[in-house]
Amino acid sequence: MKTDGYICVWNECLKIIKDNISSDNFKTWFTPIKPIALQGSILTLQLPTLYYYEILEGNYLSLLKTAIRKILGQEGRLEYKILFAKDVGITLPPSNVVPVENPEKQPGIDAAPPGIATEIANPFVLPGLQKVKIESQLNPNLNFENFIEGECNRLARSAGLAIARDPGKTAFNPLFIYSPVGLGKTHLSHAIGLETKSIAKDVTVVYVTAEQFIQQYVEAAKSSNISDFINFYQLLDVLIIDDIQFLSGKGKTQEALFHIFNYLHQRNKQLIFASDKSPSEITGFDQRLLSRFKWGLSADLQVPDKQTRIKIIHNKLYINGISGISEEVIEYLANHVVNSVREIESAIIAILAQISFNKKTNITVDLAKQMIDKFVQSTTREMSIEFIQRVVCDYFRLPREMMCTSSRKRELVQARQIAMYFSRKFTNSSMSEIGAQSGKKDHATVLHSIRTVENCKKIDKNFKNSLDEIERLLKNS
Questions:
Q1: Cβ neighbours for 327, distance < 8 A, ≥ 6 positions apart
Q2: H or E segment to which residue 44 belongs
Q3: Any idea what the CATH number is for the domain that residue 156 is in?
């Protein structure tokens, strides 16, 4: 065959490939590939980075098989030469990875470092990278000692401790922690990482926010160093990504995370994600990635109950060196600062400010009330539908998640109607918005619910008393 025969063969293959994938994918993954040799039925292709190798193998192997067999016959196969890495080949069929014999060093291209094994366990990680010292980015103050256990977080906390003792080897891989803001997702994430490192100091743990992860990917893409970006994360023993919901709509970053996830999970490395929504509620994610989030344990953190809030207040006072606060004041704080751990911390800071700057050594209930009064009023003004639903469900001792189901159980229907009633009374949300967050009910259903509650309030004294008590809880929480 002519010396440029390999170009013709590859161009014919490209015609078949182009007809079977989107133009964007074709341009991204196939246009940069260069054919460099054809020996018998073996076509050698040069790939620009190691990243392309996994993409082709993971997503387009079947299509490549079809194309090469059609052009070169059933014995046709491909071998890859990858820039800046050891040359590898792949046989079709089957897709066994084998080394290319006597690779030529091309001008301007680094030869493979000596001593690399011919088996390609990970096409991204190059020798020596395992020696790099990696900063964990963990906050030593966010440890398990300061993470108070209660019914609101027992499952997630227990799972975190089990992971720390044996990362990657439990059924909790990945661990997906979710809750509204201020309930301790970040604290628990750091605590797991710190506990893991305290037990096994040679374990490589990295905590990173989704924003940092995205920014790193963007910078890597700009400098054509995506393979280095993936190299780094595939070195880890424990990867913790906070606020994972911010990857929504970031298709290329998700693609990189997908391959990082696969590599780490297959090698029993631990993955931990934190989000403000459960895996079934977050949107804008590739379904392959979403399904992997659900492989392990999804654990939510709930609003702490009163006893847990009291324990948290005691702990925060102790950490900040505040003593002499009466149980009456602590009880008051626990009754009035109820939405999140973060709000409790703000209340403690306010007390600390009074002691430090205003020389108030005797913190009374009246003084505590003055300090948090504006804070509590602000919380009331910003009352949300979700908060109202939570208070109503707590009052009737119903699971919060049942509020958004289609269940027609009498007690649940009544709770849902009351939540709609107060949502209309205390928020600026439209009836359509209230219905959407109440099990996807329509405008007419919300209106009917409100009228039902108003009618029952007029004729049923016990119902009215319950309604008054719920309203009191809403205003005082």
A1: none
A2: strand 42-47
A3: 3.40.50.300
Is 14 within a domain? Answer: yes
Looking at the structure, tell me whether residues 272 and 332 fall in a common domain.
no
Per-position DSSP letters for 112-165, written without gaps between them? PPTT--SS-S-SSPPTTGGGS-------TTSSGGGS---TTTHHHHHHHHHHHH
Query: pLDDT per residue over 296-322, tens digit each?
Result: 999 988 888 888 888 888 888 887 777
Instruction: Look at the chain and report how many structural domains it folds into.
Output: 4
Q: How would you list the strands of the sheet with 175-178, edge to edge?
A: 205-209, 238-242, 270-275, 175-178, 297-300
395: phi > 0 → left, psi -120 to 50 → alpha, else beta; which?
A: alpha
**Residue 178 bridge partners (DSSP):** 275, 300
Residue 405: which residues within 8 A CB-CB, separation 6 or more? Answer: 412, 439
How does pLDDT run across 336-368, given as a tens digit for each residue? Answer: 776 677 777 777 777 777 666 656 666 777 777
What pLDDT does 376 receive? 52
Same domain, 364 and 389: no
User: In whole angstroms, what is the distance from residue 223 CA to residue 219 CA?
Assistant: 6
Dihedrals φ, ψ of 234, to 5°? -80, -5
What confidence score (pLDDT) does residue 305 get?
A: 83
